[in-house]
Amino acid sequence: MDERSALRRLAAALPAAGDDAAVVDGLVVTTDMLHESTDFPSGTTRYTAGWRAVGASLSDVAAMGADATAAVAAYAAPTLDESELDAFLDGAIDVCEAVDARYVGGDLDTTGEFTVATTALGETDAPVLRSGANVGDVVCVTGALGRTAAALRAFDAGESGRGNDLFRFAPRVASGVALAPHATAMMDSSDGLARSLHQLAEASDVGFEVSWDAVPVHDAVDDYAGDDADRRAMATTVGEDFELVCTLPADAVDGARDALSVPLTVIGDVVDGGVRMDGELLADEGYTHE
Amino acid sequence: MDERSALRRLAAALPAAGDDAAVVDGLVVTTDMLHESTDFPSGTTRYTAGWRAVGASLSDVAAMGADATAAVAAYAAPTLDESELDAFLDGAIDVCEAVDARYVGGDLDTTGEFTVATTALGETDAPVLRSGANVGDVVCVTGALGRTAAALRAFDAGESGRGNDLFRFAPRVASGVALAPHATAMMDSSDGLARSLHQLAEASDVGFEVSWDAVPVHDAVDDYAGDDADRRAMATTVGEDFELVCTLPADAVDGARDALSVPLTVIGDVVDGGVRMDGELLADEGYTHE
């Protein structure tokens, strides 16, 4: 059973789960576990790890259109080194402050592999689910895609300063709150744009027709991309960018943009069925978290 | 740096943490990470693991005198086996139902060692901290101690059915809520009675004089204890029993008992300084989570 099958199983068993976060009486809660071998390339500082791990959960709160209130983290490492723990806590606290949430503590443990489990909390009276997209809506993304793909190339190239900078993304909490009154469906792009579109399509029982030329590509991608196919893969299938992917009525785009402090780009339309880019079927491939 | 030093460091950095759980605007949140090598002896079923891991976080909510509302878990294992995951989820859901909370989902991941991170949420207008004990109060425990020590002996003896039964404790959420109006200080006994008394003493700047004869010992202890010293160690230093240890004015004990559905036993008095059992200093030893 791969993780997606297991997550579907978990979602089926639990009516409150299955979206980016669970919502119980207006309280939003989401949890993630990250491991050194799969989530923190060699060169990732503990400050960046704290920022990114807590940020990933804050992004799930943002994807519900909810305001983030607090986060906790459980930290496990082969040894509890004081300076590493301090750096991790600084990163966790700073990313919470960046979205006006509070880091309120956690748990510590020793284990064979550096592992972090983060939980973020939020609140909303009207969560934006993945299931509300309507044919005729447009589909948009915040910010630019490919930032994490570029970071991974930077780490591979030994440019760990650049890798760390790119790895510390800004969770789109304010954007999610601002989009909530306008968006019909929303999720974050943690599995990559292609997979996110497929997940929204499945949840909303619709299709998408998007244009590659319209996709906003992060500047750093051009520093590492080989050819155009590579550039496209970096922006659409590597994922872990934690931007928001949402649908909204075309006439709501201007109002939404006015409420946002980051770019909102229309990349295509919600259609009857099928997920296509420039008229061709877009494969459901991306980052399967393992 | 051992875990207690690290936790103190974390508590010092974060005003909202440092008790059994953090409290933010009436919302209680607590997180724990457990690992197969340190927390789940050979023979522990995944059902029991789900029950116990989520139960440990619910116990931290109970220790604040708060009502538990919801829990999530992040589950990581070398392979995502369907029947193991189902059993884990059943245990997680059942322990939540046992305390009228909701299990609302989680995260899945593969990693080298079976690892679970759980987060529980609760709510309270008046959390009971560790720091409110007054000289002249009495100190009490709920239920009986040594249950987990007996479970570990059962697992060691290959009696895994018994071990699993004993490992699935009932989180004292209803007891915590019932004690909250009476208790001046409270925590759970997850580090063992001896260490819990030292932690309450430090937080409240008081001492304790307790009587070993008064300590309620779980029936199963007598099936595994060697001599009286062993019996005492099983009940006071092994820990992980998840009972509540609390202080309250002596004249409040009867009222508290009436509100509880489990036994509440007075084991001693809050005094000026020093933690003593039968007049002798009680060593600050117990389970240091690693």
From TrEMBL, chains A, B:
Domain PurM-like N-terminal: 18-123
Sequence ranges assigned to domain PurM-like C-terminal in this UniProt record: 135-274
Reactions the enzyme catalyzes: thiamine phosphate + ATP = thiamine diphosphate + ADP
Residues given in the record as Mg(2+) 4 binding sites: D20, T30, D60
Source taxon at top rank: Archaea
Short name of one Pfam family: AIRS
One MF term in the entry's GO annotations: thiamine-phosphate kinase activity
Protein name: Thiamine-monophosphate kinase
